[in-house]
Design goal:
Blueprint lengths: L8 H5 L5 H11 L22 H4 L24 E4 L2 E4 L2 H12 L3 H19 L9 H10 L19 H14 L3 H5 L3 H12 L4 H4 L4 H15 L12 H10 L5 H15 L1 H4 L4 H8 L10 H12 L1
Length: 309
């Protein structure tokens, strides 16, 4: 693996000594994947074992001591405010994103996106490797990361042929296209692409954690809302008091039940688009006839290999 955040600093944070251990951790601890249906294969090397302490260190993360790997982003300081007792940027664009998120999601999923935003800022405030991030971009990515699950049956944000992660990323660009002319001038191609990446990859930690700080911070904040403050990606970076302070102000509102229902719903409505998405695991476990026969990625690849040799 190349020497950047996902493979060096983050592996150091988790006391990981090899690429093999890192791959095994990501497979085990992806917080968005149901694993009871598919037992986790052990690495072929019998000399390697994966004791729990390897993945959940009992000491503060070494990530706190690392220096940023990316050059500082020269942006003017942003005004801030307290939300859920967390200091976050306060710009007109972020305020508009909060309204856009609320208009295109259920109260439960809207709260999930807000908590993910706040959790990401708590983690990033303690991790020097994330201090170089574009805080407005991180805010928009977290606040809009699930708007592709808009419950409105006629929503223009929801496609019939794309996974919800891509719909959400595209919706974020739609949101930006509706912003003021002054705001749009601040969003060049690079910022837009990074926003798209942070949202599209938010449920793919084995890729997201290798990318820029904005993508990493977005992914980690969302992971906390599924794994809690003692999950593998937040151990030593967040206290139960901080976690409960956010949940008290932004309640979960039956997140467990609703999220599962939403995942199953999109697997029924557009099954082909959900193959390879995080929704796939809910579909496999709870939706009859999912996935469509022959549509799993490995099945498509296998057919091609059989044909081409």
């Amino acid at each position: 693996m190349p020497d950047h955040f996902g493979s060096a600093d983050f592996r150091s944070f988790l006391h990981i000594k090899s690429d093999q251990e890192f791959r095994h951790l990501i497979h085990i601890y992806n917080p968005l994947v149901c694993q009871d249906r598919h037992p986790i294969p052990q690495p072929p090397d019998d000399s390697y074992s994966a004791p729990v302490p390897l993945y959940i260190p009992n000491t503060p993360s070494q990530l706190l001591l690392t220096k940023p790997k990316y050059p500082s982003i020269k942006m003017p300081p942003l005004p801030t405010r307290l939300y859920g007792n967390v200091s976050v940027p306060d710009t007109p664009l972020i305020t508009a994103a909060l309204s856009f998120s609320k208009a295109h999601s259920t109260p439960t999923l809207h709260n999930h996106m807000i908590r993910s935003w706040l959790f990401g800022f708590i983690l990033a405030s303690k991790a020097p490797a994330l201090t170089t991030r574009d805080q407005e971009l991180h805010s928009l990515a977290a606040i809009l990361h699930d708007v592709g699950l808009d419950p409105n049956p006629t929503s223009s944000l929801v496609s019939t042929d794309k996974c919800f992660e891509v719909d959400s990323a595209n919706a974020a660009l739609t949101f930006l296209s509706q912003a003021s002319e002054a705001d749009q001038k601040e969003w060049d191609h690079h910022r837009k692409q990074l926003l798209w990446d942070a949202i599209a990859l938010h449920a793919v930690p084995h890729i997201a954690l290798h990318k820029q700080p904005e993508v990493v911070a977005t992914c980690l904040g969302i992971a906390v809302d599924f794994g809690g403050p003692e999950g593998p990606f937040s151990k030593g970076l967040m206290t139960w008091g901080e976690y409960e302070g956010v949940v008290r102000d932004v309640p979960r509102l039956g997140m467990k039940t609703e999220f599962g229902e939403v995942m199953c719903g999109i697997c029924r409505r557009k099954p082909a688009a959900c193959v390879g998405s995080v929704a796939e695991k809910w579909g496999e476990k709870y939706v009859e006839g999912f996935p469509p026969e022959g549509m799993r990625i490995f099945e498509v690849l296998e057919r091609g290999l059989e044909m081409l040799g």
